[in-house]
UniProtKB/TrEMBL annotation:
Catalyzes the attachment of glutamate to tRNA(Glu) in a two-step reaction: glutamate is first activated by ATP to form Glu-AMP and then transferred to the acceptor end of tRNA(Glu). It catalyses: tRNA(Glu) + L-glutamate + ATP = L-glutamyl-tRNA(Glu) + AMP + diphosphate. Its EC number is 6.1.1.17. ATP binds at K262. This is Glutamate--tRNA ligase. Residues 3-260, 360-417 form the Glutamyl/glutaminyl-tRNA synthetase class Ib catalytic domain. It comes from Chryseobacterium polytrichastri. GO terms for biological process: glutamyl-tRNA aminoacylation. A motif ('HIGH' region) lies at residues 10-20. The gene is gltX. Keywords: Aminoacyl-tRNA synthetase, ATP-binding, Cytoplasm, Ligase, Nucleotide-binding, Protein biosynthesis. Belongs to the class-I aminoacyl-tRNA synthetase family. Glutamate--tRNA ligase type 1 subfamily.
Length: 574
């Protein structure tokens, strides 16, 4: 059996988004599952769309995810170079080869000429397509005489190479995930294979490289499904065996009802309104915002979807808002969704070199790479027993392309946070200490104490920084006391009781065990319920009635600081 070789072939046109990471991940998982190889190839033939730094970003993102290519531009390999811009000689050879077949021809039409023709078609309400119905009326080696063609070539007239789409053939297309389908060649156009600068377009370079690099399986996003007919014919034209194909469905926008709450409704309304009025400048911001907010306040109601339906009684602005929201809340997950709802769509932060805009990354938002790839992998695939927490190796063992879902997978912010929480629990205290030390949290506390804090706080942490943020009281004395908690925990006698307790603390050994006993004995001696001591004590130490067990807090804060905080509280409630 031939060796399984799978490639991930991104174009360096910007940062890799979640959908791209998932494609790379499925490529990798399938290759590893089959004992095969995973190749990273950079498809940079489209210089107009090239973005500085995008290739480095892609490599770094894959590395962070642990999706390590066996061959890549950085690593090299048997089929190097892995950057298409460096493979020109190879493409030139195959351009000559395809021109000798009946599957390609050269065309001299300039972009301007084609624009004029396109406009003529549009004026008649038609759409122009360079295809088997129009090609004989255009300027190419099929319509011109041999002499005319030779003359143009001698004059160094620029030309492109086009694919000669066969007439009226029904192609059978096979896809591992989607099964069989068919397409008639009369619906396909004569795509440009080689541009007038001699560089191949995506379609031609892509199949040449897949052939040259001995790729056995092409696993890629569903946006390439419409190209499958052309690609199948290109393999036929070159008399090469085609790889097997699998097209992955889209990652869909999250369910908006899980994202909007009373804390963020105003900011989300604002970003939707900004976009709405940019597109519909005839409406005022305030009026639009009011309507959008009205819809968003009903977002959790089961009627929400039907409320967006058309209604004859709607005025112009309401009808436009409805249309805008319906479109904006469904379909493919986009970068803008992340911006609006406050979740990352990219693995790492990316600064657009042209605009300076920063797109937020999972890494910088405190996600662990294990959680991020686990979440991404389950967007469209479920392992046999519906297990949810799987390492990269476990996923590779279980991965099955036939079990990848045909339908789009809905992204969920909640679920991605859930995964991160789970993976934080799986980390040892020492590992979390390293993560916190490497983050931008400013910690001036010794490791031993920090480890204890991590141990107590990780259970409630979704992100590493939560350990610090939910445990701020370990690092800083409270500057105020929560009003409701104060009413509940402090009464006229409390100051005297806590004052006395503080004195007993002077001679108490500061370990959680002894402290627990000391609080217990003190309360018993005074004939007080435990809560009468524990609650105000917690308030004095934390500033509110939350946090881990009080003896644990006391131990970590230490004798001097604990007594000082108790006295501060007594002074405060005087
Ligand atoms: N360069 C293409 C992209 O960026 C690759 C498509 C394919 O995998 O064939 O999506």
């Amino acid at each position: 059996m031939e060796k399984v070789r799978v490639r991930f072939a991104p174009s360096p046109t910007g940062p890799l988004h979640l959908g791209g990471v998932r494609t790379a991940l499925y490529d990798y998982l399938f290759a590893k599952n089959q004992g095969g190889e995973f190749v990273l190839r950079i498809e940079d033939t489209d210089t107009a769309r090239y973005v500085e730094g995008a290739e480095e970003y892609i490599e770094e993102a894959l590395e962070w995810c642990g999706i390590i290519p066996d061959e890549s531009p950085k690593k090299g390999g048997k089929f190097a170079p892995y950057r298409q811009s460096e493979r020109r000689d190879i493409y030139n050879r195959y351009t000559e080869q395809i021109l000798k077949t009946d599957y390609a021809y050269i065309a001299f039409d300039t972009a301007e000429e084609l624009d004029v023709i396109r406009a003529e078609y549009e004026a008649k309400g038609d759409v122009f397509s360079y295809d088997n119905k129009t090609r004989n009326r255009l300027r190419n080696s099929l319509s011109l005489s041999e002499e005319e063609v030779q003359k143009l070539l001698d004059e160094k007239t620029p030309y492109v190479v086009r694919f000669k789409m066969p007439i009226d053939r029904t192609l059978n297309l096979v896809d591992i995930i989607r099964g069989n389908s068919s397409v008639n060649t009369n619906t396909l156009d004569d795509k440009v294979l080689v541009k007038n600068d001699g560089m191949p377009t995506y379609h031609f370079a892509n199949i040449i490289d897949d052939h040259e690099m001995e790729i056995s399986h092409v696993i890629r996003g569903e946006e390439w499904l419409p190209s499958l007919g052309l690609h199948t014919l290109l393999y036929e034209a070159m008399a090469w065996e085609a790889p097997q194909f699998a097209h992955l469905s889209l990652i869909l926008k999250p369910d908006v009802s899980t994202l909007i709450n009373k804390d963020n409704i105003d900011s989300i309304t604002k970003s939707f309104t900004d976009e709405f009025v940019t597109k519909n400048s005839q409406f005022s911001f305030d009026e639009s915002a009011a309507i959008i907010k009205k819809f968003f306040s009903e977002v959790k109601s089961p009627r929400f979807k039907s409320m967006l339906g058309e209604n004859d009684k709607d005025d112009e602005i309401t009808a436009s808002v409805k249309q805008f929201l319906k479109k904006g809340l469904s379909g493919k997950l986009s970068k803008r969704d992340g911006d609006k709802f406050g979740f990352p769509v990219f693995p790492l932060d990316f600064k657009d070199p042209a605009t300076g805009n920063i797109s937020k990354g999972y890494r910088e938002n405190g996600y662990l790479p294990e959680a991020f790839i686990n979440m991404s992998a389950l967007l469209g695939w479920s392992p046999a027993d519906d297990k949810e927490i799987l390492s990269l190796d476990e996923m590779a063992k279980e991965f099955d392309l036939h079990k990848v879902h045909k339908a789009g997978a809905r992204f969920s912010k909640e679920k991605s946070e859930w995964f991160n929480h789970q993976y934080i629990q799986l980390k040892s205290d020492e590992e979390l200490l390293q993560i916190l030390k490497n983050s931008d949290v400013d910690l001036t506390i010794d490791d031993e104490k920090l480890l204890k804090i991590i141990h107590l706080m990780k259970e409630r942490a979704t992100f590493p920084k939560d350990i610090y943020e939910n445990g701020k009281f370990f690092f800083e004395a409270p500057v105020s006391y929560d009003e409701k908690a104060s009413k509940k925990a402090w009464n006229d006698e409390t100051s005297a009781v806590l004052g006395e307790f503080a004195t007993t603390l002077e001679s108490t050994e500061f370990t959680s065990e002894t402290l627990k006993q000391a609080i217990h004995d003190f309360a018993e001696n005074k004939g007080l319920g435990m809560g009468k001591v524990m609650m105000p004590l917690r308030l004095a130490l934390v500033g509110e009635l939350k946090g881990p067990d009080v003896p644990d807090i006391l131990e970590i804060i230490g004798k001097q600081e604990s007594i000082a905080r108790i006295n501060n509280a007594i002074n405060n409630f005087k």
